[in-house]
């Protein structure tokens, strides 16, 4: 990531899913506890699938290629990628591990990204951390719902543009010290995923169950989602994309490297939030405001009649003047744009003035452009210095955080994304004004040039 102050590349690392590989069993030699397979699973609960399931209703799947029966066995296999396992394990261990007192262990929640192959096997390619909760539960807030919608949109666009076939294929959470099961709340959550998509899976990670021969995760589905909250969970067959030994070594190595550094990562995030965003960015906007400021008081509505009848309370979303009514320009920006407009009006007059043969009208116009440009650029000197310094500080911190980005949750990612967005908006506004200062549309008419010659 560039440290250059002029670099406009987003500071926010992208979330990429790994390509699936040929599945290999999670079992190791001498397993004392095995990840269940179809033949090994002992199910005391009913295993009935959803009757007469219409595959045409399943989104994001190539229906012409999938060779599966319409009745999907909820114990059907899942392949968990090394990346997905590593992300859920390390994020889970951030809040529940053997160095933390059990009373202080906290549950975490995330979403799964994957695809279904031709044989109906669900390949879980990524596990994105979303939120940390308390000892036994998590709560989704507005920021998590917004983040999930943005992730879903990004996955959908990638699926369409790159033909990846990926979609949100389930969820995962931790049960530190509680084992593998669905609580009543978990069942309701799983219904939200499995009713629209029978392949959807819920993975549970419990670090106290993790051993040399067992990954500490199990994949669960509901036996029959049509039963609603009365549906019972069963274990689905779970495999890895590599041998269990390889997966374990990679995940353990990441945990040993990452976890001791998270105190520093949290300090860096706090610095971004408290110092760079709340103080430096806020002061830049107060003193040299260029970002549009939302007007307070009016609510946005799609009801045109309501907006007309109560225009003091509501703003119609499709109003041609929506932007100017919804936002106001800071005084500094108003002043700059006012100066640019006056300069442009004066330059238009110069461009239209009749000149003698002794004076080159083009040179006179260019000299006037340079004069006005220098006058206004003096006003931009300080804000340019401030924003460039802010960019350097921000990007330097992002470079430090980048190796740990996979293990940040929604709230932590939003700290980065918010400042990144503010800096980009300010830079775009600054670039726009600097572009206007070129006065490229103002030229001496061709007939004036001929007269001067």
Helix content: 40-55%
Q: Widest sheet: strand order?
A: 1-9-2-4-3-5-6-7-8
The fraction of residues assigned to DSSP E strands is: 5-15%
Q: What is the CATH topology of the domain at 24-240?
A: Cytidine Deaminase, domain 2
Query: Main sheet?
Result: 9 strands, mixed
Number of helical segments with 4 or more residues: 11
Mean pLDDT, nearest integer?
Answer: 82
- Shape label: elongated
Could you say which structural class the secondary elements and strand pairing correspond to?
alpha/beta
How do the SSEs run, as a string of H and E? EEHEEHEHEEEEHHEEHEHEHHHH
Protein described:
The chain is an alpha/beta fold and 453 residues long. The chain starts with 23 loop residues before the first strand and ends with a helix. Strands 1-9-2-4-3-5-6-7-8 form a 9-stranded mixed sheet. It has a two-stranded antiparallel sheet with strand order 10-13. It has a two-stranded parallel sheet with strand order 11-12. The chain has helices at residues 82-95, 142-162, 184-194, 244-258, 262-287, 304-309, 322-326, 331-352, 361-401, 410-436, 446-452, and strands at residues 24-25, 78-80, 108-116, 122-132, 167-174, 201-205, 217-222, 233-236, 238-240, 293-294, 299-301, 314-316, 327-328. The chain is elongated, with a radius of gyration of 29 Å. It has a domain at 24-240: Cytidine Deaminase, domain 2. The longest helix is centred in the last third of the chain and has 41 residues, at 361-401. Helix 1 (82-95) packs across helix 4, helix 5 (262-287) packs antiparallel against helix 9 (361-401) and helix 5 packs parallel to helix 10 (410-436).
């Amino acid at each position: 990531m560039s440290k250059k102050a002029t670099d406009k590349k987003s500071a926010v690392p992208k979330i990429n899913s790994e390509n699936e590989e040929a599945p290999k069993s999670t079992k190791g030699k001498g397993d004392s506890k095995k990840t269940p397979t179809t033949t090994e699973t002992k199910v005391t609960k009913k295993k009935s699938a959803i009757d007469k399931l219409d595959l045409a209703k399943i989104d994001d799947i190539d229906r012409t290629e999938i060779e599966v029966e319409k009745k999907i066995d909820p114990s059907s296999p899942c392949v968990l990628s090394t990346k997905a396992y590593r992300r859920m394990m390390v994020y889970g261990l951030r809040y529940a591990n053997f160095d933390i007192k059990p009373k202080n262990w906290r549950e975490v929640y995330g979403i799964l990204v994957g695809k279904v192959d031709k044989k109906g096997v669900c390949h879980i390619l990524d596990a994105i951390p979303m939120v940390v909760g308390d000892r036994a539960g998590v709560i989704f807030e507005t920021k998590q719902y917004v983040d999930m919608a943005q992730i879903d949109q990004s996955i959908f666009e990638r699926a369409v543009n790159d033909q990846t076939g990926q979609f949100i294929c389930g969820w995962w959470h931790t049960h530190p010290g509680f084992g593998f099961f669905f609580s009543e709340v978990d069942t309701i959550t799983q219904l939200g995923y499995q009713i629209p998509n029978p392949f959807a899976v819920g993975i549970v990670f419990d670090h106290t169950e993790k051993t040399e021969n067992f990954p500490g995760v199990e994949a669960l589905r509901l036996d029959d989602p049509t039963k609603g909250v009365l549906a019972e969970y069963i274990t689905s067959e779970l495999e890895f994309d590599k041998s269990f030994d390889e997966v374990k070594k990679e995940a353990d190595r990441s945990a040993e490297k990452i976890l001791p550094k998270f105190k520093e990562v949290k300090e860096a995030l706090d610095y971004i939030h408290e110092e760079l965003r709340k103080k430096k960015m806020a002061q830049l906007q107060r003193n040299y405001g260029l970002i549009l400021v939302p007007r307070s008081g009016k609510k946005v509505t799609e009801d045109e009649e309501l907006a007309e009848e109560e225009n003091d309370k509501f703003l119609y979303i499709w109003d041609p003047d929506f932007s100017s009514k919804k936002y106001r320009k800071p005084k500094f920006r108003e002043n700059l744009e006012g100066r640019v407009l006056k300069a442009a009006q004066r330059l238009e007059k110069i461009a239209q003035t009749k000149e003698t043969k002794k004076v080159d009208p083009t040179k006179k116009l260019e000299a006037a452009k340079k004069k006005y440009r220098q006058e206004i650029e003096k006003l931009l000197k300080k804000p340019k210095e401030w924003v460039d310094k802010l960019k350097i500080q921000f990007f330097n911190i992002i470079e430090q955080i980048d190796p740990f980005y996979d293990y940040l949750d929604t709230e932590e990612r939003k700290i980065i994304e918010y400042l990144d967005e503010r800096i980009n908006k300010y830079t775009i506004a600054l670039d726009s004004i600097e572009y206007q200062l070129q006065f490229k549309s103002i030229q001496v008419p061709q007939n004036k040039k001929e007269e001067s010659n």
